[in-house]
Amino acid sequence: MAKEKLKPLLPSLRERKRYLAYEIISRDSLDIFADIDDVSESLLDASFDYMGELGMAEAAIMILKDKYDPKRQKGLIRVAHKSVDNLKASLAFITSIREREVIVRSIGVSGIMKKAYDNYIGG
Hints:
The protein is an alpha+beta fold. The protein has one domain (17-116): Ribonuclease P, Pop5 subunit (Alpha-Beta Plaits). It has 3 helices and 5 strands, in the order E-H-E-E-H-E-E-H. It has a 5-stranded antiparallel sheet, with helices on both faces. The longest helix has 24 residues, at 36-59. The radius of gyration is 16 Å and the shape is globular. It starts with 16 loop residues before the first strand and ends with a helix.
């Protein structure tokens, strides 16, 4: 019995995605105290609290760990195009990362990862 390869999805059936650039504002630099795992855990927890389980599934949030710049404290999140506003709202509820007071704000949104990284993070 030969294995059949799955057909790729048509472009019209694929989920449209956006890349949201975010910035973490804090009194102290977080690169010594927190790594990307702590940041992503805080982002996902706040999103789950705001959107719930169904909203998280629809949003398809993916934190791009390799696109995080610890010196500038900026990074990218991939999200479904219909859930960008919900993600922005959930970022406002983050008050601390690893017991450090922070403010997380969105810088901008793009449909292309390279553009989002170059324009907002500075690659």
